[in-house]
Amino acid sequence: MITNSYHSERESLFSPGAFLGERNHICDIALATFSYEILNAVLNRYSHKEVGNMGSANGNRPIYMLDVDGRQIIFYMSGIGSCVAGNHTIEMQWQTGIKKLIVFGSAGALDNESTKGRYVIPTQAYRDEGMSYHYCEPSDYIDIENGSALAGIFEKLELPYVCGKVWTTDAPYRETRTAVSKRQQEGCIAVEMELAGIQAVCSFYGIELYDFLVTGDILDGEDYDSGGLHDANHSLGKFYTALKISELI
User: Fold this and answer.
1) pLDDT per residue over 200-209, tens digit each?
2) What are the pLDDT digits (tens) for 56-111?
3) Which of 43, 80, 112, 193 is such that its CA lies 20 to 30 A from the CA of 35?
4) DSSP class of residue 206?
5) pLDDT for 131-144, tens place per residue?
6) Which parts of 119-219 fold into alpha helices (H)?
7) Which of these, 222, 207, 139, 220, lies nearest to 180 by C-alpha position?
8) CA 228, 234, 239, 242 torsion: positive or negative?
């Protein structure tokens, strides 16, 4: 069973070094987006250089070093889905040596009244995916380790936010009314596709994760509403919020 996939043995038959060479340490903080529009806007604005890539048969995803007013920050576009995003975290960290990772993405609202107009700071993620079960012991939920710390930062920045549980799923087309209702009853306020896997990987490798979301599509109404999804996915404001967070962690 998938819930029996975790075991305490730390070493695998091969590491990222088999494909990427020796570990490197060139920076301490990384920012990850899931949006090609945000990626292109940031690269057009800031001086940058390519410092690595995450390659596969699908092609390469470059890893960039940004110069932000004299500060060096790693920036990259993660793949979507818990497995891909988790492996990209591992390969990015292998090539850069970062210690802290800020991830900003979009989510579907399971409680639109509480999430509308606010950032969502996850406190736990329901593990409806496969990646996390290889990196930590089985449980229904995984704690998001720096949720409280991030809420404190949002307070300092005077940004609107709400804290709560989220649902990580690898099967968005199986977000049925029954499944949504179960997660809502457990207190989940949003649904997304990466967090449980990324947090498990970060905990395993000792990376500090800071994750926040913006809701776009709405799943708690009579009919599904995707009207806000584009803005939630591609709003450049998320990047500038992540930059502010990077100064305070």
Assistant:
1) 999 999 999 9
2) 888 899 999 999 999 999 999 999 999 999 999 999 999 999 999 999 999 999 99
3) 112
4) T
5) 999 999 999 999 99
6) 147-157, 177-185, 195-205
7) 220
8) positive
